[in-house]
Each structure stands twice: as structure tokens, then as C-alpha cells.
Design a protein that fits this description.
Two copies of one chain form a homodimer.
Chain A (H helix, E strand, L loop, with lengths): L17 H14 L8 E2 L1 H8 L3 H14 L2 E2 L6 E3 L4 H25 L2 H20 L2 H22 L3 H9 L5 H7 L3 H20 L3 H15 L15
Antiparallel strand pairs in A: 1-3, 2-3
Helix pairs in contact in A: 1-3, 2-3, 4-6, 4-9, 4-10, 5-6, 5-9, 9-10
The structure holds a DNA duplex (30 and 30 nucleotides).
Chain lengths: 235, 235
DNA sequence: ATCCATCAACTGGTATACACTTTTTGTCGG
DNA sequence: CCGACAAAAAGTGTATACCAGTTGATGGAT
């Protein structure tokens, strides 16, 4: 053989495995809110929908269970995890601690290329915000914002820290939006905070960078006063 | 009627699943040092040794991979992860941050029963240390010490924090012993530090408790001076 | 009518068989 | 003797079949 005929899927580059496919698909369903808390995750149904067998589905569900997005109990149907206000507060508190630490480390380690990338990302976020409305912008914003934080986490050069931030401390956007302030209010502030974090990193000032990141995250934290009780049944 | 005849294994209480069995067995092999860094983890071989099929073995290996104890690459044999000095330092730094926070929270939340349990555990550790020699005591100490830290982590009432501490920041004892001070030196200090943490918790003083835990963990951290370069090729 | 036992359908748990990739090993040519 | 190539061996990835436990409905007894 010798001529490289990949005889099946023929995605020449990297045919990602079935479990990767399943994992990302299901994770996306949950994080975007297409599946809501309590929805049933039936292995057969998911297998049919995604087009693989039950085996990779099970591996994917186990990973999501470990990450806390899915609840699995023995012989019981898997369901999408429920996130209470307390859960949201806990996640943001831990993110503040760990991402603050990561930002502090990043301040003395981040490369010029990564700094330029961060500037680029923030510029894109602000540009798209101006050009598109809120609704059009939202999904793109989440992606750009995610990369912004991911670049900083990677620059901390602490692989376990990076992994924890990426896998154990995610909150579905639908839940986040329920508990946080409305987007119009929070995102204008977010841009200013991102710029401050960037300035602190460029100044190579760990304490400032950490404090700015902490301020950013705590500002997103649901107002701890238990005033928000709107159980919208809408939709 | 339904008399409760469990018709197979007959462990009346909770017959733990095959993947639980496999997970704990393999994890134990790694944490105790029975398997060393770089050792191959062959699914068939493990399946035969543990007495289950490959399926639960694969689930167990995936969990251990997520925890960082095992390295899996597609189509490649799994191996026991390698922990460099840098890895050990990283783990202890993150443990200090997170377990310090947990201890701070625990100070205002821990129950009287848990406090008594901690006293009991510390008393046992010291008693067994006096009665048995070092070698006899070691495995028992690890177990008691593990529970000591686990009780505090649980008392913080932050389930994600507890899970991260229990799953993502473990270091195999064999590696720990290679990088840390000799047991005789470190454990006498450990007892004093445990007593101080306990005192701070009983005093309900979060700052003191956090600082004491931080001191405890940083004292176990390998001496950051890069003096230890012994690449033993022995065995 | 309500409650409980029982049973059937459903769902998850495990084992096994097959497909694809890597790794090893043996052979040939230099 | 060494390196490149090729075929066989070994190992992982996925699919499927089968087993075990749960769930919920059904029917009878109270």
C-alpha cells in the first residue's frame, strides 16, 4: 500500500474518533442550552442521533459526568446536570481563585505572540459588538471570549491548572444567563475589564493582572443577594 | 418475594461495578508505586489480571487518564504517567491554593463530629508512629493522612473543590518520596502542623486555618532549589 | 378506591467479535 | 554490519450481542 488511501471517512487530515465526536456534540448541546437541566440522555437515542454505536456514547457521557455536566447513576438514565444558584456561585468563586492565579503566572510568562493574539481577540469582540446587534453577536462572543481566557490559562504554563479550568469549571450559557446580569449591562463592563487585564499583562505586573482578573470574574458572579428568583417557564 | 437474593456475587451490601473495581485496582497499583512511570498498561493483560473484560478496563483507564495518572494516545498503548520535579511542584502549589481555600471555608463550617474525627485521626497517626516503626507505619499513615485531608475538604462544603482535590491533584507516593524530604524528617513536623491546623479549625479562625494548611503543604513541597538531579537508572 | 405485589418492557453494564493502527520483526540490499 | 522496507504480530477503537437491574404499568387483594 504505500499510497495513502484512507479507505473510510476520508477526512484526510485527522479523522477524529467517534468518542471525540460524541463528546463534543453532546457537550455542545448542553453548554448552548439546547438540552436543559434534567433532560434525559438515552444512550440508544444519542447513538442514533450522532451516528455511532453506544460504546463511544458511553465514554463521552462518562467524561461529561466527570466534568459535572451530566449526572450518571448506576442503572439509572443519565440526565443533564442541574445548576443551582449555589453551584454558579461556587464555580465562579473557584474560577476566580484559579484563573486569578493563572493570570498572575501568565504576567511573567506570556509571549509577545500571545499578547498580540489577546489584543486581536478583544478587538474582534468589540468590533463585532459594534457591527452586529446583541443577538447576532452572542455566539461569536462566547467563542472569542472562551479563547481569550484559554490563551491566558495556557500562558500560565501549568498544565493541570489549564486542564482544571477547561474541564471542571464550565457553566452552561443558559444557566449563566439566568443568574448573571443582562448582557447589555455586563458586556460593556467586560470589555473594559478585558482591556485592563491585557494592560496588566503587558506591564508584566502579576499582582495587577491577578486583581484585574479577579474583579472581572467576581463582577460576573451572580449578585449574592438572593433577589433573583425569576423561574421563567418561557420557551 | 422478593426476598433479597442477589443471585450472583452475593456481596449483600453493594456489589460494586466492574469499572469501579478496575479503577481502584489500577489506581492503587500506580499510587503505591507497584507500577512505575512508563510502565505499559495493556488492556488485555489488565483485564485478565483483574478478572473483568476489556470494556470496564477501558473506562477505568479513561478516568485515570483524565486524572493525569495515565497517558493515553489514540491507538497507542497506555502508560503510567511520568512525574517530573516540575510536576510535583505544580501539584503542591495547586493543592496549597485549593486546600488552603478549603480549610478556610471549613473553619466556619466544620461540625463537632468532624472535629472529633480529625482529632481521632491525628491521635491514631501519632500513636501508630510511636508503636510501630516507620516501615510498618507508612501504609497506615498514608490512609489516615488521606482521610484527615479528605475530612477537611468535605467540610468546606464545595463539592467541585472537593472533587478536584480528590481526583486531579494526586501524586504517587513513590514519586512524592523521591522528591520530598526523608520521612523521618518530615513526619515529625507533619504532626505538629496537623495539630496546628486542628487548633485553628477549633478556634473557627479561617485565616489561621488557611495559613496553617498552606505552611503544611509548602513544607512538603520539594526544595525548589534545583539541587536534586539524581537520575537513578537503578532498576 | 387504594395499596401493594408482580411482571414486562426498557435501559444501562459487561462481554465478545471485528476493523483499523501501530509496533515489532525478519529480510534484503548496500 | 547497518539501514530501509515489508509483512506479521500485537494492541487499541468501535460495533454488536447478551445479561442484569430498574421503572412503570397492570391487576388483584384489602
Amino acid at each position: 500500500m504505500t499510497n495513502e488511501t484512507t479507505r473510510d471517512g476520508a477526512k484526510d487530515g485527522a479523522t477524529q474518533s467517534a468518542v471525540e465526536t460524541a463528546y463534543h456534540r453532546i457537550r455542545h448541546l448542553i453548554l448552548t442550552g439546547e438540552m436543559r437541566s434534567g433532560d434525559k440522555l438515552l444512550e440508544n437515542q444519542l447513538a442514533a442521533a450522532i451516528g455511532v454505536s453506544r460504546t463511544p456514547i458511553r465514554e463521552a457521557l462518562n467524561r461529561l459526568n466527570a466534568e459535572g455536566l451530566v449526572v450518571l447513576e448506576r442503572y439509572r438514565r443519565g440526565i443533564v446536570a442541574d445548576f443551582s444558584l449555589d453551584d454558579a456561585v461556587e464555580i465562579f468563586r473557584l474560577r476566580a481563585i484559579l484563573e486569578g492565579h493563572a493570570t498572575s503566572r501568565a504576567a511573567t510568562r506570556i509571549s509577545q505572540a500571545d499578547l498580540r493574539r489577546l489584543e486581536e481577540l478583544e478587538r474582534l469582540m468589540e468590533t463585532q459588538f459594534e457591527e452586529l446587534g446583541w443577538n447576532e453577536h452572542l455566539e461569536g462572543f462566547d467563542k472569542l471570549n472562551g479563547e481569550f481566557h484559554a490563551v491566558i490559562a495556557a500562558a500560565a504554563e501549568s498544565p493541570r491548572l489549564e486542564k482544571i479550568l477547561a474541564s471542571s469549571l464550565e457553566l452552561p450559557a443558559s444557566i449563566f444567563n439566568r443568574y448573571s446580569e443582562p448582557v447589555e449591562v455586563r458586556t460593556r463592563r467586560t470589555h473594559a475589564q478585558h482591556r485592563e487585564i491585557l494592560a496588566a499583562l503587558k506591564a508584566r505586573n502579576p499582582e495587577w493582572a491577578q486583581a484585574a482578573m479577579n474583579a472581572h470574574l467576581f463582577s460576573l458572579l451572580p449578585s449574592a443577594s438572593g433577589s433573583l428568583e425569576h423561574e421563567d417557564g418561557a420557551e
